[in-house]
Cation:proton antiporter (Salinicoccus bachuensis), 619 residues
Amino acid sequence: MEHGPSVVSLAIVVLAALLTPILISRLKVSFLPVVVAEIIVGVIIGKSFLNIVDASDPWLNILSTLGFIFLMFLSGLEIDFDAFTQKSSTQKKSKVLKRPLPNTLVLTSGIFIGILALSFLFALLMRGFGVFDDIFLLVIIISTISLGVVVPTLKEANLITTQMGQVILLVAVIADLATMIMLAFYSQLYADASQPIWLMTILVGFAILFYLLGRVMNQSHFIKQLNNGTMQIGIRGVFALIIMLVALAEGVGAENILGAFIAGCIVSLLKPDQDIVHKLDSFGYGFFIPIFFIMVGVDLDLPSLFSDSRVFILIPVLLLAFLLSKLIPVMVLLRYFDVKRVTAAGFLLTSTLSLIIAAAVIAEQIGMITNAESGMFILSAVIACIITPVVFRQLYPEGENEDRVINVTVFGNNQLTVPVSHSIAGGLYHVKLVFHKNYSDSREKSTENLSFHEIPEYSEEALDEIDAFDADIVVLGANDSDINWRVAKMAEKRGVERIIYRVDDPTQERAVKERGYELFSTMLSSKTLLRGLIESPNMMQLLSDEETSIYEIQMNNYRYDEMLLRNFPFTGDIIFLRILRGQESLVPHGDTPLHVDDRIFMTGTREYVEELKRELELY
């Protein structure tokens, strides 16, 4: 009886993929990205050392190709296209900033243009000195930035939501998108393909069609019903999209990874549920992608690579080009940030991996470079990924998120706003109470956490003078509904995240809700309170007691993402009551993982809850 291809090599690679993250954790080498460790493990078991894996095994070739495709898909999925619509007017003051940032998209696009210009200059110099001749390929390799390294590093440092973190992220996103497009044109120009380049417009046309179809399916109630249990129609749809676009890309003479990257961009634009994103990450980083990276290491032949004397010239020159092409353009950020933060940002942007591997593999396949040159490019990327995240962590100042406070601006000086301002001021909350001087006899003195501001009129100039909209929460509690409405629109224009609006006129409720403001009504609150006292007097006493109140915390700290509650390091006087995750309401227990964007309801002492808010919400 004849047997098919042996699965021994596959078994070795899968076992290596399983053991690699375990070894990293046990050896406490957290500075080493997992993907880099997988390449190193591949080098050990591959041609360079043990040679126990058959690189020509058909199982491994198929799964490695799928891993490569899935890696490019997830690279597209990681791109947050909302970042391109950010406005500088929404920024709040920061102790870190020397001056307000300009339009973030313009700033980061300018930085990437500088990176591209320097990459071209270094490519010309390397060609002039006879180091390497292919200028187009060098520009792609030097200018690319690895989102797969930048995003986890920013998350681990809790910087992804900070202003510097957003600048770094957007530069990486633009670089990832631009260099991927450049690589597609490079492969189309130099590959021995009979299809003309204009056929790529067919791929773009189908991508637009699939995006429109996806929007329709997203809104279909019937499709949503099929997205549960064993059907998992959303996951099936994503895989169908990837395969169809990969097939289309090959059909028009482009590289299959371009189709996979476009598929990732389409899914990102469709804003999938976090549950689907987690499942796709599990498919990719749990199985396919580790096999690809291990096989990259298996194919590296270091002995023959170092027998070529050019390796001792090309790799140092490439590493220097990687660093200088990123470090010099980001120096423009010295106008807004200190030297340490800007230098650290330059080093982190030097990290590059996935697209260099893609470019090296593609260039070797189409005969533009040799196997040795491909190995040199990949090895330089691996070295950069080992060094740059470590340097970033060492250089970037700690304590960016220390002394966090929630700034609240309350408008109106009356029997409702004054007691509430006094009760919340202190600790986590800094409160400004703003009122018209003609409508108040207040003689109270300002304190560290509660300040009183009399203004001559509710104009933008008067409110800007006291920084009224430099706040996380604005409460419109004045007795005059016209004032509340006018000031609410000013706060919305200035990008205030939460606007709480007092409504005494029932006819105004609909307009307030349509604007997206959080509504509270004194009449409705009084009815609710009276009914609660009648039906559940003990419950109302429990809710009104500061020591037993129920609090809500938004989980924004990536450090605790996926952490089980039993491993949660804060174990003070507190009880978790409920977790809201999207449309799902969970009863928490020890094996419940925390996810970013969870809303956690808890009860406990106010001091401890405020400490948790500082840690989890990262205001």
Remarks:
- The longest strand covers residues 429-436.
- The two ends are 67 Å apart (CA to CA).
- The beta strands are 406-411, 429-436, 450-455, 473-476, 498-502, 518-520, 550-554, 574-581, 584-586, 599-604.
- Residues 98 and 338 are 8 Å apart (CA to CA).
